[in-house]
Write a structure and sequence with these properties.
Layout (H helix, E strand, L loop, with lengths): L3 E11 L1 H16 L6 E7 L3 E4 L5 H4 L2 H6 L3 E4 L7 E3 L2 E9 L9 H18 L4 E3 L5 H8 L15 E3 L2 E2 L1 E8 L2 E9 L4 H6 L6 H14 L3 H4 L6 H16 L1 E5 L4 H15 L2 H4 L3
Parallel strand pairs: 1-2, 1-12, 3-4
Antiparallel strand pairs: 2-6, 3-5, 6-11, 7-8, 8-9, 10-11
């Protein structure tokens, strides 16, 4: 069977505003039929705390700590909880809702797209599998998360290894297009991560952080040998090709497209009105 061709973009390290603007632009271009479905890999300069579309920044985030660590801060166009993008590979997938391989429901579309991530972990020698909340208690916990930290618990069809979450993803649907992006952690500094959030007391913070160790893990805490970013990139590129049965073709933005991305970055993602809107 012929494999479908999708575009592949490896942006390298980009600013927080540029990263979110490019994901948004890709969604728009795909909705107009100007580009093929696209998978993009990227990193962050500086390391950045991204907050979900619905989160209340000033209520949940310790902005003084964000500034002290010289981290970036950006609001995503997708939902979910806050993520510290530091030692990780970030991916995004842009594909039409009416693509023949895409289920109609959000959770089932997560499952299909995440097949690529699953294959990537397996290519790195990690025995990953999908998290599926089974009990009513687990399902209710997804609706009322106890913390603002994304990796605090796995959601439907997110990837876990040895019972702990190894990838966090978020999704939005606009203009008939699915945008799913997420983080694949190579390493994680839990003290630094938890310093960025507000808690009702130090005791609550300590308890949450203890629980976190049992719920989330980075690739290099599971692997017998250290895995590099380059090895991760290679494995997940091949993983997406295998998991989605596609062939990835490198794509370069035109000068005009770059201008559009820069404009979106400046007008929306660098704008405090957008960042602190809730």
């Amino acid at each position: 069977m012929m494999k479908e061709t999708w575009y592949f973009i490896d942006s390298g390290l980009c600013s927080p505003a540029y990263n979110m603007a490019l994901d948004e632009a890709l969604l728009d271009w795909h909705s107009k039929g100007e580009i093929l479905p696209t998978i993009r890999f990227y990193g962050w300069n500086p390391a950045t705390l991204s907050v979900g579309y619905f989160q209340k920044v000033e209520k949940e985030i310790d902005l003084e700590e964000v500034r002290k660590n010289e981290f970036g801060l950006v609001r995503r166009p997708t939902g979910g909880r806050a993520v510290l993008h530091d030692q990780e590979l970030t991916y995004s997938v842009i594909v039409s809702e009416d693509h023949p391989e895409m289920p109609r429901t959000v959770t089932e579309a997560y499952r299909v797209i995440s097949e690529g991530i699953l294959e990537g972990f397996r290519l790195l020698g990690l025995d990953a599998y999908f998290a599926v909340p089974r009990t009513e208690e687990e399902k209710q916990a997804l609706k009322t998360p106890r913390s603002s930290v994304c990796f605090d618990a796995p959601s439907w069809y997110e990837l876990v290894v040895e019972g702990r979450k190894v990838a966090g993803s978020a999704q939005t649907r606009q203009k008939g297009v699915i945008l799913q992006h997420g983080s694949i952690l190579l390493d994680i500094d839990e003290d630094k991560l938890f310093s960025l959030f507000k808690f009702s007391s130090e005791r609550v913070k300590e308890r949450m952080q203890r629980n976190f160790k049992n719920k989330a893990v980075a690739i290099n805490a599971l692997s017998e040998t250290r895995i590099t970013l380059e090895e991760t990139r290679k494995a997940f590129k091949e993983g997406f090709e295998r998991g989605l049965n596609i062939e990835l073709k490198p794509y370069q933005l035109t000068a005009e497209q770059e201008e559009v991305v820069q404009k979106i970055a400046k007008e929306r993602y660098e704008n405090d009105q957008w960042t602190f809107r809730r």
